[in-house]
Specification:
ten-stranded parallel beta sheet, 2 domains, 6 helices
């Protein structure tokens, strides 16, 4: 598909500065721009590239003031990052969708398959599974018995949906993710550990995206729940009986232990750890590698916490500043102790 700068401005609510008839047919990073490509500038650290990029059109914020001549046509918008995301979504929606069932797929006769689905080779669909309209299942996906997958959901290769689990509409599950494996439940005995049967399910609501190799465990009883709009990065672990509130986002390698409840619109950076049976309030932000073991700050919501154990971010900054001064402080304490000993000896 080919678009003009004027069409892009109309779609994004922007204004054109340069040639309104400049055409683009692809996207490129601003530092790798080519003729006929659309790029964007949102981070000032990349400003130098706008003066040398070969991209035909560049999205910029309305307040951007170039310090030298820009050869590309500019489209000024309120938020360049949001606008390029909107354009990428439009571009993706225009791609021709695959439809049909590959002859190498296995579908149990009792399964119900919606209209306009694509089911790739070596997909396995079990008994009484329900697949909604427009679902895309890439090669080697496995859907266990009695599971349900909502309309227009896309599941990539080697993802596994265990028996009885529910996936909503318009979800994206990336390669290798596992939905509904047993929760980590064992009872200690004199002879070892007895497995506690995990008879619950996982429920994933609409518009959820789950990254590659992320695991969401089924509950002991009831359901592990991922509410609508949640976005999970790669290698995230959600344990049994956890509930994640709507529109919460988690970066790679986050781990949430069993029976914890995470609120809405939370943001967890990489490698955050949440202990079991905790409540995290709405709009809580946890910095990278933060470890939450309890406390009222997280429970109330709205806080930004860092470190282990997680504390308010300003306190964390002060603590780290003090820690950096620790070698000098230790040296001073040693000198003071030496002086004190000398004073005692001279009495």
């Amino acid at each position: 598909m080919v678009f003009t700068a004027q069409q892009i401005a109309g779609y994004t609510g922007g204004t054109v500065e340069g040639d309104p008839n400049a055409t683009i047919g692809t996207f490129a990073k601003i530092e790798e721009g080519v003729e006929g490509a659309l790029s964007f500038l949102a981070n000032p650290q990349y400003e130098s590239y706008i003066y040398e990029t070969k991209s035909s059109v560049v999205l910029v914020n309305k307040d951007f003031q170039p310090s030298q001549e820009v050869k590309a046509t500019l489209v000024r918008v309120d938020n360049a990052y949001e606008s390029v995301a909107k354009l990428l979504q439009l571009y993706q929606s225009m791609q021709q969708k695959r439809v049909g069932i590959d002859s190498l797929a296995f579908i149990d006769p009792s399964a119900k398959i919606g209209k306009d689905c694509y089911i790739g080779p070596f997909v396995a669909i079990g008994e009484n599974v329900e697949i909604g309209d427009g679902v895309v299942l890439h090669p080697h996906v496995t859907i266990g018995r009695n599971a349900k997958v909502g309309a227009n959901t896309e599941i990539y290769s080697n993802a596994v949906i265990y028996h009885d689990c529910i996936v909503g509409n318009n979800c994206i599950l990336h390669a290798g993710c596992v939905i509904g494996a047993d929760g980590f439940g064992f009872a200690p005995t004199p002879n070892g550990y007895d497995k506690i049967p995990q008879i619950g399910i996982v429920t994933i609501e609409d518009n959820v995206e789950i990254g590659a190799n992320t695991c969401i465990d089924r509950s002991t009883m009831g359901s592990t729940i991922i509410r609508k709009g949640v976005k999970l990065d790669n290698l995230v672990q959600i344990a049994h009986n956890v509930e994640v509130g709507q529109h919460t986002v988690m970066s790679a390698q986050v781990g949430v232990a069993g029976s914890s409840k995470v609120g809405e619109w939370c943001m967890f950076a990489g490698q955050v750890g949440i202990a079991g049976h905790l409540k995290v309030g709405d709009r809580t932000t946890l910095g990278a590698q933060a470890g939450l073991a309890g406390g009222n700050l997280a429970k109330k919501g709205g806080a930004t916490l860092m470190g282990y154990p997680a504390v308010e971010h300003r306190k964390f900054a002060k603590n780290m500043a003090a820690l950096n001064s620790l070698p000098e402080l230790l040296k001073e304490v040693a000198e003071l102790k030496k002086e004190l000993e000398e004073l005692k000896n001279n009495k």
